[in-house]
Each structure stands twice: as structure tokens, then as C-alpha cells.
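Consider what follows.

. . .
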Amino acid sequence: MKAFILAAGLGTRLRALGLEVPKVMVPIGGKPLLQHHIEMLAAQGIREFIVNLHYLPEKITGYFGDGSRFGVRMTYSFEPELLGTAGAVKKMETALRDGPFLLFYGDNLLRLRVAPLVEFHRARRAVATLALFESAEPWTGGVVETDATGRVTRFEEKPDRKTISTNLINAGIYVLEPAVLDSIPAGQFCDFGKNVFPKLLADGRPVYAMQPRAYIRDIGTPERLAAAQRDWDSGTLDEYT
């Protein structure tokens, strides 16, 4: 199974710390964030990676090269203009047509086992399966509601907080079938949360979600990055191996 890691984030709010690097190259525990993703997934048997690039792409390609130093193979997709989470995937569809694949938003510090998510996806015969996590402020993300089987009944990005009936939101970790690519327009900006998942639901496609046992933390502000570093230093992530 291949993994596509979205790595085009600018990390604008982290520049106050003097970090002039793509967001996925921000160091935590002495390693770039993206290296944590690669090593976590490689340890679980994932060997093929696609990484999209935009801001300072040479910082990523110069560090990782072809991936052989990490025991994996890495392919890059440069975007002169950002294509969105789904548009980035559509651009590389010829490399993703041979079977289900993982998609990770690269700007979170993560620790999880992907096998339970993949097994759930296959058991439900889903076209897309989303990982969820609990949020104290669910209105700031993509709120996901499901039925008793885990089938998604509602997906809404940053809804009015008065309409929210769950605190489970999109974790930015998906298992996707190649058929999902048919719902993404080519050559234009497209977002999974705002465009693709609502379309799949409207078309009656089997989209499922589950809450895996996982550590997930956004590192997009200096405060969140500091919290992630504290968790790393304290060994909190080791509880999720």
C-alpha cells in the first residue's frame, strides 16, 4: 500500500520562531516532522511514498532524496500553485490507480497503527474511510457524524457551533479507493473536506469513519509546537506504539 503525504503547507505562523522551512520540516525531537511520519509508516510495512511540494521544495527533496536512506521509495509532486488536499492527489492519479492508498495531512504530529484503520475500511467495503479524533473545539475542523456502523451521515467543515452534535472531527488520515479519484476534477483546486466528501455522500457512496487509538496534535502555532515537543520529551507518544 502506498502513502500520500500532503506536505505543501507554508508554516506561516511558525516563522516567528525563525523557522524558514516547510511546515513538515519543523523539527521535533531532533527530526523533521515528515521524518517522523516516514519512519512510523515504514515500521508498519509502508515502503512507497508520494509527497506533494510547494514552499521551499528543495528543503524536503535535499533532506530525503529518493528515500533510500530511510528504507523507502519517495516520489515528489511539485505544485507551482497550490491544488488543495484533493487536487494534489488528482495530479498524481496515475500512480494511485493500482489499489487503495493512505493519505496523511503532514502537518500533524502523529502516532498510530494503520492496520486497524485499513481492516475497518476493507470490512466495510468503503470507498473512503476517515480517522477521527475528539476535539474540545470541534467547530474549528471538519465535523463528522456517523451511524451505528460507522457510515458517515454528515461531513461539514467548520460548522456553526450551535448545529454540532458530536465532538469527533476529521483527523486528516484517510484510506481511499482509486474510485475516489473520479470525484476530483482535474487541474483545479479541490479540497476533500469541502468538495469531495460532501459529493461522495450526496452520491450515496460508502464513506465510513472510525476513531483509532492514536496521538494526533497540530503543530501549526508556536504554542501547539511547544506542546507537541513537551509530549515528545515526556514519552507520551510511546503509549501509542
Notes: The chain has a mean pLDDT of 91. The domain at 2-232 is CATH 3.90.550.10 (Spore Coat Polysaccharide Biosynthesis Protein SpsA; Chain A). The helical segments are 33-42, 57-64, 84-91, 115-124, 192-202, 222-234. The chain has one domain: 2-232.
